[in-house]
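Sequence in, structure out. Go.
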Amino acid sequence: MTNQAIQVLQGPYITNTYGGGISCQGPTLNVTPYVTGAVSAQKPYEGYYDDPVYDMTDNFGAFDENGLPIGDGRLDNPGDVQFYRPVRTGQKDNYNLSVGFSATWSKPLDKNLQELCKQAATTQIALQQQLTANKRLDFEIARLKNCGELKKQGIYFHPKSPYYSVCADVIVTNPGGVIPPHRHSIPAPTSRKAEDLGGAMSLTP
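Output:
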């Protein structure tokens, strides 16, 4: 006899944690597939066996009233086998295969607590997003301030530097100095007189 059983283990509710001590549990579906099998066999395998047929002859050992030999109730040739008869044993191998799955559905009974937990989780996510935005704003303002002060002093990354883009979008509109690169165009003179060109002037008494 072979006993087989399938055990269904009830897992815990799925728990989601959102920080700030907020964790919510939701409905849970547990699906457990299984495959079982069994094989039974006898070794060595014999489909047939030879059954001996013995000689049951009893023709001698006594005489009748006429003096003819007759059987005396004893076998004339005890133990002699006349032939062997094949007999089927009925031996066979047994195979068993079972395939299936078990499923359980678990759901909290208090729906209001679930809704409150979802609202708290939404609020916590919004708070974390706002804190992240504040940190980002602080970073950008600090970058703007530092890059602006460095540009006023004429300090900046080389355009081929991998860090050039750090301050590339910072613009200084009133630097109080010259921001390199800085160029001026000088118009060509229209007069060829020395005095107009700034040369030495001759004075006559």
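Check: The helical segments are 111-152. The longest helix spans residues 111-152.
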